């Protein structure tokens, strides 16, 4: 049986590249509305996996690993304030999937 860990890791790295380099224009709120997760969720899952493996990791460290830079820097560079339409869509999605 083939060890899939290397394939999973490569796919994960590609996802991060896609979200943070190729499509940094896609806002986290839009990801949450459409997919039910965002970059911050990935950071939380990454931190949980590290801690489960015995590697302590802070929220900031996990976000930097996912965003490829400190979160505050990424947010200032790419994150726009949510529009009223984005907020309404997010609230509607939360109610549907609540």
TrEMBL record:
Residues 26-91 form the SMc04008-like domain. The lineage of its organism: Bacteria, Pseudomonadati, Pseudomonadota, Gammaproteobacteria, Lysobacterales. This is SMc04008-like domain-containing protein. Gene3D superfamilies: SMc04008-like. It comes from Pseudoxanthomonas spadix (strain BD-a59). It comes from the Bacteria. Pfam families: DUF1244.
